[in-house]
Amino acid sequence: MIKVKNLTKRFTPEKGLFDLNFEVKKGEVFGYIGPNGAGKSTTIRHLMGFMKPDDGSSIINDLDCWAKSAEVQKLIGYLPGEIVFLEGMNGLDFLNLMQKMRKHKMTQKRDELIERFQLDVKTPIRKMSKGMKQKVGIIAAFMHDPEVLILDEPTSGLDPLMQRVFIDLILEEKKKNKTILMSSHSFQEIERTCDSAGIIKDGRLVALEDIYSLRTVQRRIFEVKVKKESDIELIHQSQLQTEIMGEKTAHITVQGNDQEFIQLLSRCEVEHVDTRPQDLEDIFMHYYDRREVAQ
Amino acid sequence: MSWSLYLSMMKSHAKMLGGFIYGAVAYIVLIIWIYPSIADMKGFNDMINALPEGMRKLIGMENGINSLADYIAGEFYGMLFLIILMVYVILTSTRLMARLVDQGSMAYLLATPNSRVKVAATQAAVIITGLALIVAFTTLSGIAASEWLISGYELDVPSFITFNVLTFLIFLVIAGYCFFISSSFNDEKKALGISAGLTLFFYMLNMAGKLSEDTEWLLNFTIFKLYDPIKMINNETNALLTGSMLGVGALLLFGGSLIIFKRRNLPL
Ligand SMILES: Nc1ncnc2c1ncn2[C@@H]1O[C@H](COP(=O)(O)OP(=O)(O)OP(=O)(O)O)[C@@H](O)[C@H]1O
Ligand SMILES: [Mg+2]
User: Fold this and answer.
1) What pTM did the predictor assign?
2) Number of domains forming the structure of chain B
3) Which residues form the ABC transporter domain (chain A) (predicted)?
4) How many degrees, rounded to 5, is the angle at CA B214 between CA B208 and CA B219?
5) Residue A243: beta bridge partners?
6) Among candidates B117, B14, B109, B137, which has minimal Cα distance to A84?
């Protein structure tokens, strides 16, 4: 459904997109992960036909995204990364305008979504909080029941409860065989919804795999606090990659060997376990390393 | 053109447009209302004639005030109305395109199945409508005020209307290049600065050109050369020729805006 072929856009020699290739099949949910400034939004701008590639092309449903952008839009629901609405409107005015510009008459799905996200649509947009604007954006992307959804950091600004509502929404659309591309900074978020994911860094795709293989290379670091000093010794001697942080605390890195980790813990008297929040480079060290070697 | 976008834009645009219309209408009515007292004032024309010629040209009174038409053209169309229309056209053209790209809300308009050309054409229609409304309201109030507010002075209505149509076309061309600039830039401030700077530059060339015969050649480089209210209102220009030239010019400028907007990269 979505095809990106040799997509290249050079802003400067190091900045931009460089020879991107990936494909999202119909009914698939694709997660697009990368740190700030990696080029996620730039790729999405090409898919939306806002930018003309220097080289290569992006194609949705066999239509070129640049040359046929207006036609492509018929299939797409889009959530921009930085949401800015027209001035001097309230949420409902805006949603109505979008529907009219799409010549879409049914309001059932729109009202259902408003209900679900508990949005007060009569609020003037300039008085809305970030999360409220995000909700208006999400509703605008989903309300015309599009075949393809392109979502740039969809959960930013949403509270945990609304993030859950959003994830349920994605899973529902997936059941309806919709094709979804969503970008994110966080693997955890993508993990819950996506079938496959691409990792982008500095404008280059460093990994493109299904979510199960990504899970096995994902590194998580646990902070474990035990009750006895002898347990620390036990942890230290295990096969796992460990780092002793204090008398009774250790950091244990787990990467696909969850079973051994649990077995180890079962032999200790554990007081407290916590995961350390990590950035993407920690999680996918494997991929970043491989790229550095390749260079 | 997307009709729903047009209506929504006109709605959010209405307040500002209303302000401009109100300003223009109030001023033309006021100026017509005080005409009889100025026309009756004995020394007025002598006073004007005492000024140096360049100065008289500048304030639009080469021959003093001889008729109501001269007076309206010189006092209103030559000064305040010119400024009102310049400000309106520059501000509005910037708001309709560059501002939406700069802020990012253009992304939403283009994320609907309306092509860039269609969206830009709709925005162009908004500024053209606004300009037409200001000129139309001013024309009507001018005619009404000279009919009913004062007595004993005649305004030649058909030539007043022709003159207003020409005024509209001249500012349509100015709107055209401002819109072109607005369609080409991502930065609202830059678009505003360049449109305003260019228009001011044209205006200054016009002033300099009228100052003396040595500088007259400067007039060839400014659109305001075509805007000579007193000559226009007295039918001393070839309205049909100027009018069609201006019309073609405006068409090319707006057409060019659509093409450049269609082809360029948008950082949305
Ligand atoms: N129009 C542009 N001109 C020049 N450089 C640009 C342009 N747009 C983006 N860039 C640069 O390209 C890089 C990628 O930007 P992009 O917005 O795609 O990042 P991102 O992956 O979406 O990041 P984030 O997670 O912060 O949203 C950045 O370094 C940015 O400065
Ligand atoms: Mg981004």
Assistant:
1) 0.88
2) 1
3) 2-227
4) 45
5) A251
6) B109
Q: Which CATH superfamily is domain A220-277 in?
A: ACT-like. Chain A, domain 2 (3.30.70.1150)
Q: Which chain A residues are closer than 8 Å to B104 by Cβ? A: 80, 82-84
Confidence of residue A295 (pLDDT cuts 50, 70, 90): very low
Q: Which of A36, A41, A47, A50 to mutate to test the pocket of ligand 1 (most atoms within 8 A of CB)?
A: A41
- Which residues of A are less than 8 Å from B113 in CB distance? 70-71, 73-74, 101-103
Query: Is residue B113 included in any domain, yes or no?
Result: yes
Answer whether B103 sits within 8 Å of A84, measured CB to CB: yes
- For residue B211, tell me if it sits in a domain: yes
Domain spanning A2-216, CATH architecture: 3-Layer(aba) Sandwich (3.40)
What is the full DSSP assignment across B198-219? HHHHHHHHHHHHHH-STTGGGG
How large is the average pLDDT for residues A257-278?
84
Specify if B158 maps to a domain: yes
Range from A152-156, A214-218, A286-290, B180-184 carrying the lowest mean pLDDT? A286-290
Distance in angstroms (rounded) separating the CA atoms of residues A57 and A19: 10
CB contact under 8 A, B113 and A88: no
Q: What is the pLDDT of residues A25-34, one digit of tens each?
A: 999 999 999 8
Whole-complex ipTM: 0.85
Tens digit of each residue's pLDDT (9 = 90 or more) over B123-158: 999 999 999 999 999 999 999 999 888 888 888 899
Query: Which chain B residue is nearest to residue A50, measuring alpha carbons?
Result: B266
Question: Is B139 inside any structural domain?
Answer: yes
